[in-house]
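Quick note —
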Amino acid sequence: MDFPFSFNQKSALLLIFFFHGMVFSFLLLRKGLIHNNRASKWLSLLLFLYAMYIAPYMLGYANWYDSGWTRETLFFVPFMQVLLIGPVVYFYTKSLLNNSFKLTKVAYLHFVPAVLYMIYSVIVFITDKLILDTYYFYADNRDKDMANWYQVVGLISMVFYLVLSLRYYFDYKKLVFDKVSYAESLLFKWIRNFMIAFLAILILRVVFFITNPEWGNFGSQFWHYIAFSFVFYYVAVTGYSNIIKQTALSSEKLKVINVFDDEYSVSKTGSKTNTTELDNLKWKAELSNLMVEKHLFENPRLTLSDVATELGTTTKTVSSVVNSVFNMNFNDFVNHYRIEAIKEKLQKGEQSTSTLLGIALDCGFNSKATFNRAFKKSTSLSPKDYIEKLS
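Predicted structure written out below.
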């Protein structure tokens, strides 16, 4: 039996993206199994779903839907799991930002729509192939995966889960700034870019749907799927690169903590606490003395928990004082003392015997970019402009 595949311009181009998607999916799954990395496994599944999403069009442009056994087979294979993509994106985001995240029984409810569609696909197959032996559901000769109602519901589902993912990221971002002094090192640039890429996929879908009056025709959708494939390829390459970087984190000196752990609990700004105004003044004095006398800010891996341990109190108390008394988050609070120490060194002229970066590292910053941003935020001047002003 031969397997005719028409290597025309459209099918061959989509085949390249399909093949690379499957390769990256396998590589990520392998990484996930070797290093027990849940985020890698979720991204592997997402890339597999993306590859399956373009498969009907890749095979369609190769004439597999024209006639014969290939047409009979492809009609009943649910390639496009658009109701599964959204939940996978959401759980990938959670597992990337929260290394202790595990699926709970309630979380499995997110997969119910996709399961129902799979059941529907099985019913269609049994009815048309095994019971009636003729097209009943497929009397219109149109693949059910490409039905407008299914694609629209899938789009709504993906938008919903993108919103959930963004909310989770913003919660993570706030917690990072409230709990560690090296927040920018833990703000995954990749997850932000990933969600922008996912948003781009959704926008492309809407734009092509609106601007294409013949959307229902198979051949008129090529430009949507090729545009999707380029974004899909970016997610595959950059996502895999990010997993490689994560795997190498263990060799770095940065302390990796889970900001969602209760050990690092913080009090919300403006919320009621059991501390009185007198208590706050007491903790303010102790906290200030601790930073000035012990120079805790020089520790580039300083966390809220470290400060609480030094003071012999809870992280919630320290967080409350930093938020309500100093009107800062923990990251900005520590950086304030780092900047003050740097300014003192600059006023003494230490820049003549040491580099700016060397001074910044001595005072607790872990990168030049973080130092420059924090310094300008505090003084409204760049370090070089500040030195010129001193002169």
